[in-house]
């Protein structure tokens, strides 16, 4: 049934990989905005505030499920670990993720509906986590197009299921349940169908290898978790000091920040293997040139987005979400600057991972997250939503500077060693 869908000419693989990577990255980046828009339209701003906080928490918890492993797996060009080990490790990390979610909602003292929505959105992210590990496998095999197709179809289907269910029932909990069922079924069917092209094996619980893999990727997991926490800290401060309506407004204004990350993702994923090979083969000039190309593109895109956001951002967001955001232009611009710093930090994270210096990420993310935790509450109490924007941008800028300093130091030491 799917044979023609997966079998394509070898000359077309590169083009389709670019297209489907763009398609899947685009869908993944806008899904939270689309679902939030639908919830706002059908259930109102208060429900949108609850949903947005739950979705943000699920994205943070997904970093435990993914364990920061995708970039490591995609750059594992020496096949140090088999797909069987990656599969088994993903089962382990997703169990840890869901236990962590239960602990989180209990610690935060969420009431039943808020807790259940958060838990269900995290279960939906479990399907994202398994999609991710197979996507990394296809990428290593030179078939990033397959990874993009599966993600695109799965996200499109569960988003449609969520929207239709909410239209007919206005029930957030039921809508989340339907999304989980649809996403799970489609993922299983599509992954199974790829066996005609790329052989797959069942998970193998070789605990010594799983332990070694988890140990190597632990800094990436903690770094990814802290990276999302850094962005969520202002939201938790809003949850503590402001209203669900304010939470929704902040999330509306925060949405354009993902645009920079979207375009960076387009450029970054196809270049990951090339970056890794240039580093492994000690082609350092080529490596630096590729890094510079990515940064230059991200800087150009960020400048355009900040300028466009300052002029058109709030009017467009007001129309899209049906609320008046005209008085929040300053908040939006500050957030867009923070989003640019965030995108640059993601690039730096990948570079340090390719250099196999991922353990040092803990320093940068630890510092930035500590700053976010310390200043978010203070700034939100004093400046409300503008304070939340300041907190996000200050912590993102700190992270960017710390990681940039580390990269320059490691490149300098490598250059000095090779003289």
Could you explain the architecture of this structure?
- There is one protein chain.
- It is globular, with a radius of gyration of 21 Å.
- It has helices at residues 3-6, 13-43, 45-66, 70-74, 83-108, 112-140, 144-169, 172-193, 207-241, 244-254, 257-280, 284-321, 329-354, 361-383, 385-417.
- It has 15 helices and no strands.
- It is mainly alpha-helical and 419 residues long.
- It folds into two domains: 7-205, no CATH class; 219-419, no CATH class.
- The chain crosses the membrane at residues 20-42, 48-67, 88-109, 115-134, 155-174, 180-198, 210-229, 249-272, 293-321, 327-347, 359-380, 392-413.
- This is Lipopolysaccharide biosynthesis protein.
Q: In terms of quaternary structure, what is this?
A: single chain
Helix content: over 70%
- Tell me the domain tally: 2
Could you tell me the strand content as a percent range? under 5%
Structural descriptors:
single chain; 419 residues; mainly alpha; 15 helices; 85% helix; 0% strand; cell membrane; Lipopolysaccharide biosynthesis protein; transmembrane helix; transmembrane
Any chance you could write out the topology, listing elements then pairs?
Blueprint: H1 3-6, H2 13-43, H3 45-66, H4 70-74, H5 83-108, H6 112-140, H7 144-169, H8 172-193, H9 207-241, H10 244-254, H11 257-280, H12 284-321, H13 329-354, H14 361-383, H15 385-417
């Amino acid at each position: 049934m799917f044979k023609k869908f997966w079998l394509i000419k070898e000359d077309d693989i590169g083009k389709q990989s670019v297209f489907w990577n763009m398609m899947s990255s685009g869908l993944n980046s806008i899904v939270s905005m689309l679902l939030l828009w639908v919830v706002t339209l059908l259930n109102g701003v208060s429900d949108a505030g609850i949903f947005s906080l739950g979705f943000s928490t699920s994205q943070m918890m997904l970093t435990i499920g993914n364990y920061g492993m995708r970039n490591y797996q995609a750059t594992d060009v020496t096949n140090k670990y088999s797909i069987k080990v990656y599969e088994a490790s993903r089962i382990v990390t997703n169990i840890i993720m869901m236990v962590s979610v239960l602990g989180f909602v209990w610690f935060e003292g969420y009431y039943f509906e808020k807790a259940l929505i958060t838990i269900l959105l995290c279960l939906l992210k479990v399907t994202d986590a398994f999609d991710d590990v197979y996507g990394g496998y296809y990428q290593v095999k030179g078939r990033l197009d397959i990874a993009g197709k599966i993600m695109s179809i799965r996200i499109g289907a569960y988003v449609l299921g969520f929207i239709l269910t909410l239209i007919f029932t206005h029930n957030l909990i039921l809508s989340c349940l339907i999304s989980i069922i649809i996403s799970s079924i489609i993922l299983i069917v599509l992954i199974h169908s790829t066996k005609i092209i790329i052989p797959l094996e069942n998970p193998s619980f070789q605990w010594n290898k799983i332990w070694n893999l988890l140990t190597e990727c632990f800094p990436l997991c903690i770094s990814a978790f802290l990276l999302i926490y850094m962005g969520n800290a202002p939201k938790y401060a809003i949850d503590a000091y402001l209203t669900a309506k304010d939470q929704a407004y902040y999330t509306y204004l925060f949405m354009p920040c993902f645009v920079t990350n979207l375009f960076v993702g387009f450029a970054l994923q196809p270049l990951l293997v090339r970056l890794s090979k240039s580093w492994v083969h000690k082609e350092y000039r080529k490596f630096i040139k590729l890094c510079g190309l990515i940064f230059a593109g991200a800087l150009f895109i960020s400048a355009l987005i900040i300028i466009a956001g300052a002029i058109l951002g709030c009017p467009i967001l007001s129309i899209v979400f049906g609320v008046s955001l005209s008085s929040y232009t300053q908040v939006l611009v500050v957030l867009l600057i923070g989003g640019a710093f965030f995108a640059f930090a993601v690039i730096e994270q990948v570079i340090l991972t390719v250099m196999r210096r991922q353990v040092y990420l803990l320093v940068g993310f630890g510092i930035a997250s500590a700053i976010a935790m310390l200043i978010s509450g203070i700034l939100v109490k004093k400046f409300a939503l503008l304070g939340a924007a300041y907190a996000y941008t200050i912590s993102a800028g700190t992270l960017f500077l710390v990681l940039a300093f580390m990269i320059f130091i490691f490149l300098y030491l490598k250059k000095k060693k090779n003289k």
